[in-house]
Amino acid sequence: MDDDNVTEICINKPFEAYVQRYDGKACEQLKFASPGWCRNMANLVANKTAQGADEVTPLLSADLPTGERIQFVLPPAAEHVSITIRRPSKTVWTLDELDERGLFGECIDASDELDEVERELLALKEKRRYSEFIKLGILAKKNFLLSGVTGSGKTTVNKALILEIPEYERIITIEDAKELVIVNQPDHVRLLYSKGGQGQANVTPKALLEACLRMKPDRLFLAELRGDEAFEYLRAVASHPGSITSVHGHTAQLALAQMVLLLRQSPAGQALQAEEIKSLLYQTIDIVLQFNHERRVKEVWFKPELKRAHSL
């Protein structure tokens, strides 16, 4: 942390860290970061902040005395002790200085017209070139919803989608079982919860989503939406596009209707009108892949015009 160019340090497993600097990210070996050292760090921060850090309460978030923000996820909620340290910038820039450094260089006006990628996706879908359509959707960071019954092939396709993600991106998955396979993206963390709260760790999908947002994900994958975590998931993917999740549904439209019901289960969702929920869905869910009982995709839903129609 003595390097002023360092903005973030992510320890996903012992002896290794992904260090983010102003000029890029690099994987570095940390000889001192043994499993014991990582746990001792968590215990030290927990004691200093009067919090718990153990198998029952494996999530710990705190501010360090020197100003850094730190997030721990301990087993069994993760495969290894995960540590994310975010370092705030000590430099204060004026608006003019930021302008000179290109702050507004990529600023464009909002438009009701479809963008180039959306038009290309529509053209590929119309030509039934679905493999190319999906690959472009992944690279363009569209949010995917996979819908179908148990055993319909959702997980198999989810694994294939992950293979299309650039290897330099940081992926965080949230599952109740280790089903997703991540081989191309070395910077990844698996977060785990027990279905029905039967495990030792007192964590829920919603709690893991909140922790995930402090761990600098490029993409986050929630294996399946089942309850009131749906609202937190949509909030998360609104700022972290390119995410993938799944629900049980018979058609793409029913999958979206199922999302409405799940959103209604959260206190925040109960306060929203049906049209407000639909607007939120259309603006965050880009592509729905609907699976049938034969493990085939029977429907591809992509309607970017609805996103424009429901924008504020």
Write the layout of secondary structure elements.
Blueprint: E1 6-13, E2 16-21, E3 24-29, H1 35-48, E4 59-63, E5 69-73, E6 82-86, H2 95-100, H3 116-126, H4 130-139, E7 144-147, H5 154-163, E8 171-175, E9 188-192, H6 205-212, E10 219-222, H7 229-239, E11 244-247, H8 252-264, H9 267-270, H10 274-284, E12 287-291, E13 297-301, H11 304-309
Parallel strand pairs: 7-11, 7-12, 8-9, 8-10, 10-11
Antiparallel strand pairs: 1-2, 1-6, 2-3, 4-5, 5-6, 12-13
Helix pairs in contact: 3-4, 6-7, 8-10
Function: Part of the Type IV secretion system.
GO biological process, one term: secretion by the type IV secretion system
Protein name: Type IV secretion system protein
